[in-house]
């Protein structure tokens, strides 16, 4: 017997035997549901035999048989009724466990979000994407899907989604393109570091979404529930179905605030802040301005995260403000990094180390924030140094800047598009999906080994647009992505270390060294960040103006 837990109240299993009833009782099960019709296999005990053996162990049993491949709506209702009436925990079984898992998924459709159902069944080893449309429809078989059809569907209207829509529309003006995103507001997230440093106003980083959708592109203001790549379909909340000829997936990351125990309850209060949220970045600056002394902790979770330099940017700008006000000597600054290095590309580390020394920052590597007590002003870190047993340490704070753990959105992680780690599985050069030829991905959600930054999306958008256009024209992909990402490290007000690099940490500077030497702090890089990049974003990137991002061409290998 090999039960797999879906919830605390239900586990599912392949075919069980009469002898398994003793073990089922020992494992704490109080009821059995048989979802396999009698006589389906020669080695299969009848339900009557299972029921008698269960009764001998003091367990109840229920017969809810389902023909393979024919799970009807009435079957799901019968399963739901059985689960309501039987004492738990319950063990349900069929030949492989798939029918039992499917019945549970459909029976929970009205009470649980689709991604949660798909995640639970996937964790147990059962793929429910084949019935995702039914789950999204409240567990009922859709009778009228009302499908819409587009040449290209783009999921996500962040930096990557709007940019690739504009770039593709510029190449193929007659394409029928739909952009799916439920948000009302679009944010220039790279600006939040500057908000937290008192340089930008928060409203300068926000625009109404409708004003940014490229002309001629349909905006479907809805959330995505699931993908059906075999049917070229995207399922929206409410079981609306959008069909596509080609699909581009770029929904961004999920900030997993709840993964840190106690964090959600204290964000924006008790000295707990984060530049990773629009409404919290101003609180960072408020704290920096009012502090006269004490301990300030800046955290960085395990990779991957949006802009690996952002946790340090907040720290350096805060320290610089305290230095200018003459209170730095009374500050105790701690940088608690879950990783083992200051920055992943070694060429930029010497310049950063000088600022660490200048500000008197204490570096604590392999420290991952796991819990926070806001009223008590304490933070607990799991310390996992190489070749040592993990320990936990608790530190007091007066201010703490928290960077949340970051994962792919739930509807991505449980989808057929994801790799084993939950990221959209693409070829790192062409950004085309490895298994589905008519799907591409860009931005933070795909699994190419590049830095997750807006600058990376700015480079990726023309690559995807060109390769989709090539595919439409019946040609092989002609553009390749070199892994470019940029992280303007704001080391003080007025100076930036402009980190620009590609796959493998290769330096990919955009300017000659005489203008900007990215490995050294410079005023020119600050002016780029403060004055030039915001209009480049709003007026260039989001409008399909591919300034300084001409895609590299795929070169044929010599035979």
Automatic annotation (TrEMBL):
Entry-linked Pfam families: BLH_phosphatase (PF04273), Pyr_redox_2 (PF07992)
Superkingdom classification of source: Bacteria
Essential cofactor(s): FAD
Record keywords, A-Z: FAD, Flavoprotein, Oxidoreductase, Quinone, Transit peptide
Database matches in InterPro entries: BLH_phosphatase-like, FAD/NAD-bd_sf, FAD/NAD-binding_dom, Prot-tyrosine_phosphatase-like, Sulphide_quinone_reductase
Domain Beta-lactamase hydrolase-like protein phosphatase-like per the UniProt entry, residue ranges: 4-110
GO biological process: sulfide oxidation, using sulfide:quinone oxidoreductase
Leader peptide range in chain numbering: none
GO-annotated molecular function: FAD binding; hydrolase activity; quinone binding; sulfide:quinone oxidoreductase activity
Domain FAD/NAD(P)-binding: 150-263
Name of the protein in question: TIGR01244 family phosphatase
